[in-house]
Amino acid sequence: MDHSGHGMTMDLPPFTLGRALEFSPDLFFLFGCLAALGLYGWGVTRLRRRGDAWPVSRTVLFAVGVLSIALVMCTGLNDYGMVMFSVHMVQHMVISMLSPILLLLGAPVTLALRALPVAGRGSLGPRELLLKLLHSRYMRVVTHPAFTISMFIASLYGLYFTPLFDFLMESKTGHVAMMVHFLMVGLVFFWPIMGVDPGPHRPGYVMRMLELFAGMPFHAFFGIAMMMATEPLVKVYENPPASLGIDALSDQNAAGGIAWAFSEIPSVLVLIALVYQWYHSEQRQAVRKDRAADRDGDKELEAYNAYLASLQARGR
Questions:
Q1: pLDDT tens digits, residue range 232-251?
Q2: What span, in angstroms and rounded, lies between the C-alpha atoms of 51 and 57?
Q3: DSSP string covering 260-303, please?
């Protein structure tokens, strides 16, 4: 497919699913995806060789997350996304709201902490640097709800309703940087809410649900605003190539519908993950209490029975 000097894909034939799924790699994302799969596989292999278990479900979820990125960035979807707002919105929603959820459920940070070797006393290896980053002030800031929710909202309104989007779409580098930004925003938004990995900000389950729903109305309204617009809002897509046979406003309305729909789908997935994690957290806590009771002879129960006996004695 022919790319012009400023990164736009021109004179594409009309959009079909078959054409959209043809292999057309962006080298940055292709090598990034291969590296992510390779490093994750190395970590799992290292654990298995020393006899440690690692859930297959986490490996599958992480792999699907990486493949979802490759699907929208290393196929014809990336080419059509340069000239069709609706296809670009599919890319945006997948890479910022679906891929991060799958990657986080794969627990890559936990895998790295378990697989990386411990450095010698007084030295800093990759594992120690990772721990230092996790406990840094920077991570406390970028995972705080005030930051994550603000970035989540700004990535919609501050990008598409300002000239910034047009500027980034003028070059290949700008387009890649924008997609990386979408992925990073999704990761830091969902990590404190439903991520398995340890992090500096880990509120209770009720607060996590509130954080999730705090950003979704803004996302839904963004989609509705685009669906109701009576003129193209983004300059890049106001004159699509004649070879596509599409109307810019209709394509924009479709993009708005996609953005609106994606405000619901990830919410359901995250809620399911949260409820599952909450249930298992309660189960683990119950097991710990049972073990503590076995060790101390259930002193808590004995104390409660003594309290009841004292009340009965007073009643007499």
A1: 888 899 999 999 999 999 99
A2: 18
A3: HHTTTHHHHHHHHHHHHHHHHHHHHHHHHHHHHHHHHTSHHHHH
